[in-house]
Amino acid sequence: MPAIASATDTPLLQMRGISKSFPGVQALRGVDLDLHGGEVLALLGENGAGKSTLIKVLAGAHVPDSGSITIGGVPADIRNPTDARRAGVAVIYQEFNLVPSLTAGENIFLGIELTRGGLIRKGEEHARARALFRRIGVPVDPAAACRDLTVAQQQVVEIAKALATDARIVVMDEPSATLTPQEVEQLFAIIRELKVQGIGVIYISHRLEEIFALADRVLVLRDGGHVATRPVREVRREELIELMVGRRLDQEFPPRRVPIGKPRLVVEHLCRGDKVRDVSFRLHAGEVLGLTGLVGSGRTETVRLLFGADRADAGTLTLDGKPLVLRQPRDAIRAGIALLTEDRKTQGLVLNRPVRENFGLPNLAEFSRLGFINRRREQTAFTRFIQNLKIRVPTPEEPARNLSGGNQQKVVLAKWLQRNCEVVLFDEPTRGIDVGSKYEIYLLINELAAAGKAVLLISSELPEVLGMSDRILVMHEGRITGEITDVKSATQEQILHLAVG
Asked: What is the pTM of this model?
């Protein structure tokens, strides 16, 4: 397909005056958006700014209270996902919409099967799937079950699904969140190929370096309203951050001046299969110890052992000079260890339960008596954190699934802060979170360190590791391959050299 439009032609997509409210919340306030064929438009804003609501309006998941949508110069009445698909809109969400037990080819044509006489033409579907993968530029076996594909390959299947429906507009919501640096480069190559084919791409990401590497223009939302639309080449990183948060952040990573104290958590010769191999380190009072490495290097597996979520094959743990035996997470919690898991939605929260209950789960002993929970005490304690952490929630009874990613993370933080844990393990604490919420989490990390807590920070974002750590450990294939003590002089290249072994 040849390129069909340039940034100076009539927009492929026009959204005008889009407004949407929910009980107690005005999610969108008269938002305008233009997207041209062959363009990547970055959609930015803090969590809760309205990005997801705007995309769900375009996808037919929400019907706007007011406003209009025009696609290809023709008014589009999008009231459900089928209308959106027929109009040429495809949305690739961060949580893929694939059936794991079906093959890649079957997922691509699910709901639009190629049939003859009531029978699915498998051979033709596989041939068309291969052609779609060639068009994208990534070879994927159409006969492979999606459960056996890597995250990057599953993403390619989602893109192929979009192309199979002749989508002219593709929306990508945090597409790089779980990809390795090499897979991110591959994703960028795919998006650039989509641009050549005249497809308009709306790209949502909190990683600003990706925006400057990929996008043509950027549209910023704040508090449900349109703030600015700018060509990327004409805006600076600091200006983007200020547009998103509505205030100036003097530094992306707040400074911390805390004396490093004595060792609190001592890990010696920790092992679990080939995932964690002879890991030893010390975590001190007042210290933020960075732990990084490529995806699959063993970082998450290591902190799961430190939290008792998995059992170690060998090794010893000592907390404040006393031997520590962890058979289950309850043992770690009782010892004063907290874990903010990498996947807050499946491991950190019970999404269909109120945020108040999520806050109270590890604190039931404090809020209950004779087996009965004192909801008033629980709610009073949680209300303090709503105020202090600036958690955006209509009511403490709101289900956790309805909160934005940043606010979900703050709820997880609140439940552990209530326990006053001495060792806090952060596993990708700012993944999928806007810069404003990131800054607030960085401030909290600094406060924990200043209070003498010991903090272990796992992150794939190297600027974050360099900006927040007192010391950095790098892992590769289950082992610690290097330690960086002079963090101020360290570079991302130095870390990557250690990360690849």
From this structure: 0.67
